Amino acid sequence: MSGRNDPFSEIEEIIDVVTGGGPEAPTALPVDVADTGDEFVVVVDLPGYDREDVHVTLVDETTLAITADRETEAVAEADRYVTRERQRSSVSRQVGLPAPVEESETTASLDEGVLTVTLPRLGDVSGDSTDIPVE
Hints:
The chain contains one helix and eight strands, in the order αββββββββ. The protein is 8% helix and 49% strand. The protein has one domain (26-132): Immunoglobulin-like (Sandwich).
């Protein structure tokens, strides 16, 4: 078959473009980090996730970890058969902060699929990780 192209190479290239380079979905979250002077505000889009699906942790005085897990179920009826497909998705991200933050004053809220974490600057923070409840 010399001189012929692989008939599937173009299809594989199209699949790579559509799926982002492979069959796995991306697990990193794009984030916005704003420095207001007194605090850092981290904003993350998490459409479709409920509060109980989202976990926010201050790993140390300059590292924020965000994870979100969910499971959905789709049901389609066709003639006499019912097809059920469960899908689980998980996303995560660690965000490095440019200065230490005060763990006891840190807050997180999820409103219409947008997570906002407010981290006041400063302090004397212990070396232990701290879970931040999402309101």
